[in-house]
Amino acid sequence: MQRDLAQHWGLDPKVTFLNHGSFGACPIPVLEAQERLRRTMEAQPVLFLHRQGEELLDRARHELAAFLGADSEGLVSVANATTGVNTVLRSFPLSPGDELLVTDHEYNACRNALNETAARTGAVVTVAPLPFPVDGPDTVRETILACVTPRTRLALLDHITSSTALVLPMESIVRSLQARGVAVLVDGAHAPGMIPLNIDELGAEFYTGNCHKWLCAPKGAAFLWVRADRRPGMRPIVISHGANSPRTDRSRFRLEFDWTGTSDPTPFLCVPEAIRFIGGLRPGGWPAHMAANRALALRAGEILRRALSVPACCPEAMIGSMVTLPLREAPPDSLDPVLLVDRLQLRLFERFRIEVPIVLWPTWTRRWVRISAQAYNREGQYEELGQALQSLLDAEAGPR
């Protein structure tokens, strides 16, 4: 079954690709749909972008909103989740001394955006140190809440952490933070298509996520969702024609976000095609697809723990379609100074043609492997990874 599904992707068959989480991989039929849209756009750019563009975006937005369980009026297209995070941070009102809460598992790019916001506004960044390995969701929630003070204004939290692949108990965290007067910006970069979502019910003030990862849309497809009471104060990073448009048929929020200048809208326009295609891969649709990916991830974790003689880092309840496992500490010269990745990752690719991230976190010597499970993967690939890792780690350690 897995081999049959792999035919829908154009991945290099000579490479064992276990890194769907970083940039995703778009199926061939979705890319073909994008190419058709691009040809239509280039045949008559004015018609496509100016006269029809708004209607096309509306259709894609409504279908994505339905998939996400989100009010479509609050959903806008952005290039990626990092752009969504930056957009909220640029608009969120802050005063000197206000506190911005984040965990030490937050994605580096978005942590940098938070640091810049603090420097620009005089706010202070408070970091909640989440344990990893972790014993369960309650520990995560309690650790975050312990860092809240009367000055905490906004929490930036990964729904699924990038380096450690933890699915955080976002529903209970959001409720608990809001009860203390703290607004929540959820960085859901990995969540859409990996876990079931109902953004309206979640209730966070802001939610941003990628569609190019687990939804398998083309690169450059992502969204930002803003709760109704927060939309009047939200501005796009790029101010364009919508700022002084005389139109009254659409909200100022929509007028500003839906056109920020000429760009290629086809990645976002293909999101409905990606939803339909992936949802049609298995009987049972998207629920069956997500369950199958998660089951493969859990099995892959078992395979690697046995091969490497390492423990699990979290309970199964905190695992989606990615698993992070510990490796031996990295030697002092392990970091490639140009690519800023562990040379172990490069050797895995060069010698074994295995593409998988070796994560150095929270320091350059703490080393982890993060595996992804997508429909094109199969169990045997994780066995190959375990053998390759053991071989390279033994060689790195030298004779005993």
Model description:
This protein has about 400 residues and is α/β, with parallel strands linked by helices. About 40% of the residues lie in helices and about 15% in strands. The protein has 16 helices and 12 strands. The strands form 3 sheets. A 7-stranded mixed beta sheet has the order 2-8-7-6-5-3-4, with helices on both faces. A 3-stranded antiparallel beta sheet has the order 9-12-11, covered by helices on one side. Strand 11 (about 360) and strand 12 (about 365-370) form a beta hairpin. The chain is globular, with a radius of gyration of 22 Å. The two termini are about 45 Å apart.
List the helices and strands and how they pair.
Layout: H1 2-6, E1 16-17, H2 20-23, H3 28-43, H4 45-51, H5 53-68, E2 75-78, H6 81-91, E3 99-103, H7 108-121, E4 124-128, H8 137-145, E5 152-158, H9 170-179, E6 183-188, H10 199-202, E7 206-210, E8 222-226, H11 252-257, H12 266-269, H13 271-279, H14 285-308, E9 322-326, H15 343-352, E10 354-355, E11 358-360, E12 367-372, H16 379-397
Parallel strand pairs: 1-10, 3-4, 3-5, 5-6, 6-7
Antiparallel strand pairs: 2-8, 7-8, 9-12, 11-12
Helix-and-strand structural type: alpha/beta
Number of strands: 12
The CATH class assignment of the largest domain is Alpha Beta
What is the subunit organization of this protein? single chain
Helices, by number, come to 16
- Main sheet summary: 7 strands, mixed
The outline comes out as globular
> Cα distance, first to last residue?
43 Å
Instruction: List unreliable stretches of 5+ residues.
Output: none
How is the largest sheet built, in terms of strand order? 2-8-7-6-5-3-4
Please estimate the helix content.
Answer: 40-55%
> Within the CATH hierarchy, at the fold level, what is the topology of the largest domain?
Aspartate Aminotransferase, domain 2
Over all CA atoms, what is the radius of gyration? 22 Å
CATH H-tier superfamily of the largest domain: Type I PLP-dependent aspartate aminotransferase-like (Major domain)
Taken in chain order, the helices and strands follow as HEHHHHEHEHEHEHEHEEHHHHEHEEEH
CATH architecture of the largest domain: 3-Layer(aba) Sandwich
